[in-house]
Specification:
Helix content is about 40%, strand content about 15%. With about 260 residues, it is an alpha/beta fold. The chain has one domain: 3-Layer(aba) Sandwich (Rossmann fold). Strands 1, 2, 3, 4, 5, 6, 7 and 8 form an 8-stranded mixed β-sheet that branches. The structure holds S-adenosylmethionine (SAM).
Length: about 260
């Protein structure tokens, strides 16, 4: 039996299910349903995760002028993928997708077969040195020019004992001055809004063996030493909302994820 036909619940496919995609199997949907029971508004949360990723990528390419992005934990292809957003603004923008899931890698390679600006590398966030040494990534990214590092919806799958802060530091240390880091992370807001958080975290842990929500302060600490862009580390829809971005005050589920973007001085 290969990794492709073993129907174990899988992070990328559970997320695809929650986004309304079709690249998922019964075990993924079972974990997804448990998350839906714990957090009935989770679909709004995952859609807003994609929406803030779009806003950040637009900012990094259109405003900050970046022409190369590394997206670690890229996930299954969906609507408005990072390379599509970036290359709509500047077609030459180079994008390296990195994921440790063979299913994700095979879908992404199929999608990108004919695109030279965008490549897909196998890599595990918990081994940043190996990601940085990947020959495809090194061929594609010029480490003398600023890079946008995207860590969207992935650091909460790195447990405390795996030293996520050290991992972020090792990656940032490899980037030149003028680079940017984006983090999206599931959080425990620590008030009445977190009723479903513990159950959702438990469903993730039970289903895929990992999942660790952190506090807003812990997420902010990942960006220590960098220049935090306005409005700082905030809930997802508070980060430079568009006219159609829903208000966090009206949707408690939106308090369960924080984002921040910072520049390396
Ligand atoms: C929830 S999806 C997020 C997808 C996309 N970044 C987004 O925010 O819409 C998380 C992705 O991270 C990947 N992932 C989880 N742990 C990882 C690790 N240690 N190294 C590399 N990828 C990982 C999963 O395979 C999955 O594709």
């Amino acid at each position: 039996m290969t990794e492709f036909d073993t129907p174990q619940p899988n992070i990328a496919r559970i997320y695809d299910y929650l986004l309304g995609g079709k690249d998922n199997y019964a075990p993924d949907r079972e974990v997804g349903s448990r998350i839906e029971q714990a957090l009935p508004a989770v679909h709004l949360g995952v859609r807003q995760q994609r929406a803030v990723l779009r806003r950040v990528v637009r900012h990094l390419v259109a405003e900050a002028g970046l022409r190369q992005l590394i997206d670690i934990g890229s996930g299954l292809p969906t609507a408005d993928n990072v390379h599509q957003i970036a290359q709509q603004i500047e077609p030459d923008t180079r994008v390296v997708y990195v994921d440790n899931d063979p299913v994700v890698l095979s879908h992404a390679r199929a999608l990108l077969a004919d695109r030279k600006e965008t490549v897909v590398a196998v890599g595990d966030l918990r081994d940043p040195a190996a990601i940085l040494a990947d020959p495809l990534l090194r061929e594609h990214i010029d480490f003398d020019q600023p890079v946008g590092l995207l860590l969207c919806g992935i650091l909460h799958y790195v447990l405390d004992e795996e030293q996520p802060a050290l991992i972020v530091k090792q990656l940032v240390d490899a980037l030149p001055s003028g680079s940017y880091v984006f983090i999206h992370h599931l959080i425990t807001p620590g008030d009445s809004a977190d009723e479903g958080t513990t159950a959702a975290e438990a469903a993730l842990r039970q289903g895929v063996g990992r999942g660790q929500f952190r506090s807003l302060a812990e997420v902010a600490a990942f960006l220590d030493g960098l220049e935090l862009l306005e409005p700082g580390v905030v809930t997802v829809t508070e980060w430079r909302p568009d006219a159609d971005t829903p208000a966090v005050t009206e949707h408690p589920v939106l308090r369960l994820a924080a984002v921040g973007v910072a520049r390396k001085p």
